[in-house]
Amino acid sequence: MGKKKLNSLEDLGGFVFSTNNDFDLKKETTTETLAPNKQFLEAHFSNKGRGGKTVTVITGFEGAEADLKALGKLLKTKCGVGGSVKDNEIIIQGNYRDKIMQLLKKEGYNIKRVGG
């Protein structure tokens, strides 16, 4: 009973399987962050799986985890709310989609409103 069915490789939680003895995980996973004008982000509104609480989810960021966390911190600070960064998404508590879109456009990002 407590086993979760794995539907894809992503469900393994980031494990990397390699038969290459010279494989260096740190070298392979470091990605360079694209410039803001080359980023294409999406702003989603969601309340599913969160006990009815509304959140704004920003997806599509391409780059280093540290840069994603820095952007998440900037958005949380500017909106004055809590949130988190996980699974390459920025989750902001509350419906701040319009405000976040304005902030990101001012920073030079390409952002698109997705959903209602």
From TrEMBL:
Parts of the chain that traverse the membrane: none
Domain SUI1: 48-108
PROSITE patterns xrefs: SUI1
Protein origin, superkingdom: Bacteria
GO terms, biological process: formation of translation preinitiation complex; regulation of translation; translation reinitiation
Gene3D superfamilies reported for this sequence: SUI1-like domain (3.30.780.10)
GO molecular function, one term: translation initiation factor activity
Assigned keywords, A-Z: Initiation factor, Protein biosynthesis, Translation regulation
Protein family: Belongs to the SUI1 family.
Official protein name in the record: Translation initiation factor
Native species: Gramella jeungdoensis
